[in-house]
Amino acid sequence: MTVASLTRPEAEERAALLAVSRYDIDVDLTGLLDGEVWEATSTVQFTCHRPGADTFADAVGEVVSASLNGVDLDPATVEAGRLPLSGLAAENTLVVRLRQTDVTSSAGILRTVDPSDGEVYVWTSLECNDARRLWACFDQPDLKAPHRFTVRSPEAWTVLSNMRPETVGEPSDGTRRWSFPDTPPLSTYVVVVNAGPFHRVEGRRGDHDLALHCRQSLRGSLDRDAGWLLDLTGNGLAFFGDKFGQPFPEAHYDQVFVPNMGGAMENWGCVTWGDGYLFRTPPTHAQRSQTAITLLHEMAHMWFGDLVTMRWWDDLWLNEAFASWASTWAAAEATDFLDAWAEFLVGRKLDAYRTDMGPATHPIRSDVLDVESALANFDAITYSKGQSVLHQLMAFVGEDAFTRGLQDYFATHAWGNTRLRDLIDAVSNASGRDLEAWTIDWLDRAGTDTVAVEVTTAGAVVTVTSPDDAPPRPHRIDIGSYGADGALLRRTPVETVGTRTPVTGLPDGALHLPNDTDLTFASVGGGGDVRALLRTAGGLPDATARAVAVATSLDLLRKGEIAAADMLDCVLGVLAVEKNPALIEPFIAQARDAAEMWTPADQVDAARARVADLALTLSREEELRRPALQVLASCATTSDHDRALAEAAAEDVDLSWRFAVRRSERGDLPDGTVEELLARDPDPDRSARAVAVTAARPDEAAKAEAWEELFVRRSVQAGHPTFAVARAFWRPGQAELCAPWADRYLEEMRAVRGGLLSMLSLVRGMFPLVADEGFADRARAAATEPGLDPTVRNQLLTGADTLSRMIRARRGGA
Prior knowledge:
With 814 residues, this protein is an alpha+beta fold. The protein has 26 helices and 28 strands. α14 packs antiparallel against α15 and α20 (687-696) packs parallel to α22.
């Protein structure tokens, strides 16, 4: 079936015509235990403001039967996933029985069989408009309504939905019926049905009953981490309830870890995660931090997205940027991850800078004509640049005023739909600042400003240059002034106006670092001061300042203003003295990437050895041992490296797999290693680790085998496993071998389909960053082809731009 993408005019017309009173959805899961059939009957009660008018319901699947106000409708009239509805009454009841057999592509639903025990699990994830694949509905965010689910399932399964069940029937003929009470008024994309023989861990924190669920084969990982996950959940609910002026209104909060989901989804009261977040070995600090940020991101959506929902997808950026900003805010204020803002800078924010300097950049606020176009905006501009801009807005108006504005916003618009203007007005009223020009400057223009400090005998000036012809944006920043010994002398707050803003009160110092506390989204410029920053970054006393220094070095590398060796000098200099585990993991990962992907080919081995030597040194400190060994495993080059890894890997199967990938890449993996690791590893998804080992091997047959698993069999789980296989596939030193596969990637991108989260893993992870300039040109050409998925188009443009910058660096350009 060719499925139509809902346009904004169509959505506006339907929202003006209809109001949905409620959904009653009866789901039958029994066809999924041994087969691939989902069935659901939805009863939709709705009013029509112009009786006699016509419209359509969304139904993508086999419509078995349908009736409107008791009159049968012909299922054959369904076209492009739309069921015509004619002659509407003032009060209407639509009943549709729908069957879906596409339950393996992750388009709205995924049925998986655990390879270790044969148990079947089912999850749904409906953003942006995949509810229509599972039941007939009006699938747009501004037609909110209560949903009531009744689910028939195999007897041994647990069924989870937005609400806790009010009744669970006694077994009958091997099945059981679950009845759930009404949800609050929700958009169609944040309701959920998950099912399977889940392992469950419960706990009460504050006023909420919490529960965590996973498949039986991962119960050991969940039991190990359940305590801190429950604590983190309780802390987050308390923090957001206080800061947003209203507690989460449900008495429960459930989180479900499911197979083969490349992210997480903010379903009201029942968040669904990919169970890659249940690490199979004890997580490092960075892994725990990543999990905490994801948990708090989805939780923030309970308020911003679920309670108050965007009217249309042109405000998708705000939905996601707000949750991203709030998660980092909460992590820094209410958890042990106190350096969350520094971690954000050297992680996700760097991706936003990368995207913003390339051809796929776009204003944060964009004109979204249809839902398919909205999917293209699930990128670093939407998430991380948007998060940075909200962080800048809070600095611009002050945290107290920003918080008061949020509280007024949630109180005024609870259970409704809004536009950006509603939030900006609330913050403007709370702060007393006119934000209209600020909003245009920051949200309607692409590109990254550059801030610098000039100090002359005439005084100090902050300069701001813009990448376009418009005047620079206003920036609220701090200038950090440092002595020759790296000691902080003073931080001076500045609010820039135009291109040159005089600054008074700067002390005499060896370095004046603009945006020292990373309050804004801007590159750091300044010539000699920047060079001094790179040389002395390790001596800066503040985690965020050191992160600014490392981020600046990568920014300059991407722009071609320094060589990869210069960037390595900066980050390795920081790592030589860095003691903060929150920064060491991302810093050393940046160093590894610079050595492998940005360094001239004849210097890669030496650069890798520098990173590996430092990783070996860091591994001798207990708190840093596991992350340092993980990096060492990916770039080991000497017998000393190998001996240290062999010793550590004897008790660490995760490290063993990582070292096996490196040895496979080098061509010295002993026969039988993979078989021994498969027998030793209890992970039910260990087969993906074996695919990564195969992918790294420098021969044609191995590449073909790994490609088959990724693109044909789709056997590699979305998220972390896909990215791991992709990193193993495209290795420096294998460019000639991989060249034909780069063009195969373009062919796959022309046809790639599936759920949003799984598709993003393949599209982003498998871009061939070891290819040549000819491929970069072909990728740019492919991005212009009509009919190409918008998400794929943006990734091709961003990937080609990054590849071209890498090639310039590999040629020795600086």
